[in-house]
Write a structure and sequence with these properties.
CATH architecture of the largest domain: Sandwich
Number of helices: 2
Number of domains: 5
Number of strands: 54
Structural class: mainly beta
CATH class of the largest domain: Mainly Beta
Length: 682
């Protein structure tokens, strides 16, 4: 016996299947929540351009205030992955602007890279990611009348109460766009090497970053390097999967002579449908720094506090100093090298010229305490280098003071966004031990020795600093903070509550620095010899015995004091590096004289020469001429040398008072009369 389903049941099953398929292949996007909607000619968007598509949406009436979905039924624009398109949004009033593209068509704009920008769009561009899915998807743009900062990438729906601003108004517009990809589409993203500024070499590696924008696998295609009359063709024998990139060495450039080299690199994939990304032109300046001009100097010593000079010859270079001609360890750098102390003898240092090889980029207000209100045990952020750099260290404001904290350093090829909680996507560089300083100053986080990270241009790298014990100071801000210089682009990211987990706070703004260095381009080294000749440095007149006056600094502003008839004794201390026993053979004292400023010479001195291990003495015992400034002057000479000097001591001579008070015998009960016959000796 056969059983048949009723027709109504069959229809119901078919309807359920169709509904399920429609549910799978259609997405339900969140609807924004604007408190007051938009106003005609105020906070709505007046002009929008993406590629060749232009719209003037204005303020539309809809069931949800300010939300327009009239352009989602059919695609308004087709864009190709890997391509860059002009992107402009304008509003009449001063409003905040944001835009998103659902690249993977999962019904959400929260995925990594789907916030295509915030802020100003006067002359912006959008590049479609290489891994964007070729299909129809949705684009959302938004204006918001709110001046406390740009929206973050999670604000595409919950503008209110996300910002908790009771008078929020604006407009949101959704568009259907189509992301397409050719079957065969290979391109060159970047020239990784040589760098824009490089040392000449007869064998300079030329390396490019290839990308497969197509949907087919690519292999066995030629990559051609041409410069001047030279052409080098190298076959790529690996297989490059769709949406993937690969670094490939094309060949070697003969740039043994300094100069500017222009060369072209192109790929020749059979059946390539898009040739706009096949070729890249590069101009590289090869400069060999000239050796610095250094001095060979003679100094009377031992010396302290002088500068050794080296003049860089090639523009843009500076002088680097080494203790050994064969070492790579830098002793000091700079055209003026301060020397703190050198003993007698000859010292040779070696100098070379380099283009600056180290730099840093600072985010925020120089470690100000403005980030004291919040903290996170981990910070994630992205670095996109514009040239090859090696990360040396980080400096961050941390959330505790004193003791020792341990910071784990992670990184990955690609943005941190989308893999915040996936530890398998990260590489552990190492653990850095630091002493945290709360609020006031940064803590330097240095990767373990041998664990430095080198970044190549054309790539984005995610970094993660995690410290459970101290944490980092930051602000949970709606501003997507970005900073860049000629070497790096930095995008601040998120704060984490625990290691790869807990509460993930989007867009945490922090103050900090990143230190890095470049490949080295240096000149030949030249020797700079410093001859330290024995001098009189260190010789002095110290307080001896007897010393009946006052021992001061002995200069014109604070002279020693003595009264007439008293004695001041001064010990003669030998020059640094010499002994008392060297007196007469290596050093001597001569021309001892005591005179007033006006030139009157006093003979009230005794000179007792240095003998054996005993210091020499000069005794001054003024017999008259009170209330005068005398100068004790003597020459100290190095036997057989040229490093002589003069020692001076200023002495203020005072009159020695003679007290003489008396009184006559008086009767009991009568006043006593004193007589004063005191006088100053003359």
């Amino acid at each position: 016996m056969k059983n048949y389903l009723p027709a109504s049941t069959v229809i119901l099953v078919i309807w359920l299947i169709v509904s399920f398929i429609n549910h799978v292949y259609s997405q339900s996007y969140c609807a924004p929540n604007l408190k007051n909607g938009c106003s005609i000619g105020g906070d709505s968007i007046s002009y929008f351009q993406f590629g060749t598509y232009i719209d003037q949406p204005g303020c539309k009436t809809a069931s949800i205030k300010g939300y327009d979905t009239s352009k989602v039924s059919s695609s308004v624009l087709t864009v190709y992955r890997g391509k860059t398109y002009p992107f402009q949004i304008r509003a009449i009033n001063s409003v905040q602007l944001s835009a998103w593209i659902d690249y993977n068509k999962n019904g959400s704009f929260d995925d990594s890279g789907e916030c295509v920008g915030i802020g100003s769009y006067k002359n912006a561009t959008v590049t479609i990611p290489i891994n964007a899915s070729p299909q129809a998807t949705r684009l959302r743009i938004m204006s918001l009348s709110y001046n406390a900062g740009d929206l973050n990438n999670t604000g595409e729906c919950n503008m209110y109460p996300l910002i908790n601003f009771s008078s929020s108004s604006g407009a949101v517009y959704d568009y259907k766009i189509t992301i397409a990809a050719y079957q065969n589409d290979l391109g060159i993203i970047n020239v990784n090497s040589p760098q824009i500024l490089t040392c000449p070499s007869s064998k300079t590696q030329v390396q490019v970053l290839l990308a497969n924008y197509g949907t087919n696998y690519a292999s066995h295609f030629p990559v051609v390097l041409t410069y001047g009359t030279t052409s080098i063709s190298t076959t790529y024998n690996r297989t490059l999967a769709p949406t993937k990139t690969d670094t490939f060495t094309v060949g070697y450039l003969n740039a043994s002579s300094p100069g500017t080299y222009k060369f072209t690199i192109y790929v020749n994939l059979s059946g390539d449908s898009d040739h706009t990304n096949d070729t890249i032109n590069e101009t590289i300046k090869f400069i060999q720094p000239s050796a610095p001009k250094v001095e060979v100097t003679n100094h009377c010593g031992p010396v302290s506090g002088f500068y050794l000079h080296g003049a860089s010859v090639t523009s843009g270079t500076s002088t680097f100093w080494f203790k050994n001609n064969n070492t790579d360890t830098i002793f000091a750098k700079g055209d003026s090298l301060p020397i703190s102390y050198l003993p007698s003898g000859s010292v040779t240092l070696y100098a070379e010229s380099r283009f600056p090889d180290t730099a840093h980029i600072t985010k925020g207000a120089g470690f100000a305490s403005s980030k004291s209100a919040n903290g996170a045990t981990g910070l994630m952020f992205d670095i996109t280098p514009k040239r090859t750099v090696t990360i040396d260290s980080f400096a961050q404001n941390m959330g505790s003071n004193g003791g020792i904290a341990y910071v784990d350093i992670y990184y990955r090829l690609g943005s941190y966004r989308g893999v915040e909680t996936n530890s398998s996507e990260w590489i552990h560089v190492g653990t850095s031990s630091v002493k945290p300083y709360y609020f006031s100053s940064p803590s330097t986080l240095v990767p373990p020795i041998g664990k430095s990270v080198t970044l190549q241009p054309g790539n984005t790298y995610g970094f993660y600093l995690y410290c459970y014990t101290a944490g980092f100071l930051c602000d949970t801000s709606s501003i997507l903070a970005k900073i860049s210089n000629g070497d790096l682009n930095i995008t601040t990211g998120c704060g984490t509550e625990s290691l790869f987990g807990g509460i993930i706070t989007p867009i945490s703004d922090w103050d900090g620095s990143i230190y890095y260095h470049f490949p080295i381009c240096n000149s030949t080294r030249v020797a700079s010899t410093i001859n330290i000749i024995q001098g009189t440095a260190g010789a002095s007149l110290n307080k001896g015995l007897p010393f009946q006056g006052q021992y001061k600094t002995g200069d014109i502003n604070l002279p020693d004091n003595i009264c007439t008839g008293d004695t001041n004794s001064y010990q003669i201390i030998p020059p640094k590096g010499l002994l008392n026993s060297d007196y007469g053979t290596k050093w001597v004292i001569s021309d001892i004289k005591v005179s007033t400023v006006a030139g009157f010479i006093s003979n009230d001195t005794i000179f007792i020469p240095t003998k054996g291990t005993t210091n020499g003495l000069v005794r001054f015992f003024p017999s008259k001429y009170g209330d005068s400034i005398f100068i004790l002057k003597m020459h100290i000479k190095i036997v057989g040398g040229t490093c002589d000097s003069v020692m001076l001591r200023y002495i203020h001579v005072w009159e020695n008072p003679i007290a003489n008070f008396g009184f006559k015998n008086q009767c009991l009960g009568t006043p006593i009369s004193f007589s004063d016959s005191s006088k100053l000796s003359l």
